[in-house]
Amino acid sequence: MRFYLGTHQLGWLDHIPDVRVPLFVSHNRMKARKYMPQARYPWAVDCGAFTELQKHGGWRISVKEFVHQVRRYGFECDRRPDFIAAMDWMCEDIVINGGVTPAGVRFVGTHLSVAEHQRRTVRNYVECHDLAPEINWVATVQGDTRDAYLRCGDMYEAAGVDLSKVDRVGLGSICRRQATDEIYGIIRDFSHLRLHGFGVKTKGLAKYGHLLTSADSLAWSYRGKRVLGCTPTHKNEANCLPFALSWRERALVNVPGEPGDSIRINDRKAA
């Protein structure tokens, strides 16, 4: 299992030797850059669906525009990303119906059905792959119940996509209920595939990290907002590299059957 440390600090991509772990960055952070950072270590790209659907209730650009934008990363960042998430549509209730989270994050709502979100997710993946087959696209399986995820898998099959041959199959909409038995069951249903878990935190890693091919998390930054900065220049630890690396080490220790040391060794071999 390769664990990508989520970050909004793009400079970390070429921050060698301090950063020697895989990184996960958002397309939303990359797209406005005139000059791309030179990635020195394994990295991957999230499509930024959370922000698009949370703030705008849908994607504001076409698949063709998105593909044009992310193609830069393979040519200008020195090292190609391991994979890029296609433009998916999350299926949490708050994403669809709108509302405000306990943390005060407001969702405008898409006001579409779960099935429509799934159809758009599958359609976007197929279009991304057809337009840029050289990119390792993540085919994300979305749903709000265990049966819904299975139906989404069937939608991919009906669209001619053999998920067993896809480099990475993402599990979407699991972040807020990741340590539940329901999510564990969903992961078991798809465990024959090369799974990527989006936003998997410590409890999720401990429960089913051994069943994933890869995962990512930015949870260290949310935690760091509530921790006093380690230096006078740090108000808190939300952007602190040593804090992030320490959090990652602790998170990986509890992955079943995967001692932290062996994971760190796998990271170095991938350099």
Task: Provide a descriptive summary of the structure in words.
The protein has an 8-stranded parallel β-sheet with strand order 3-2-1-10-9-8-7-4. Strands 5-6 form a two-stranded antiparallel sheet. Helices cover 39% and strands 13% of the residues. The chain is an alpha/beta fold and 271 residues long. The chain has helices spanning 27-30, 49-56, 63-76, 93-97, 114-131, 146-158, 181-189, 202-208, 219-224, 241-253, 260-269, and strands spanning 2-6, 23-26, 43-46, 84-85, 99-100, 106-107, 137-141, 168-171, 195-197, 214-217. It has one domain (2-269): Queuine tRNA-ribosyltransferase-like (TIM Barrel).
List the helices and strands and how they pair.
Layout: E1 2-6, E2 23-26, H1 27-30, E3 43-46, H2 49-56, H3 63-76, E4 84-85, H4 93-97, E5 99-100, E6 106-107, H5 114-131, E7 137-141, H6 146-158, E8 168-171, H7 181-189, E9 195-197, H8 202-208, E10 214-217, H9 219-224, H10 241-253, H11 260-269
Helix pairs in contact: 3-5, 5-6
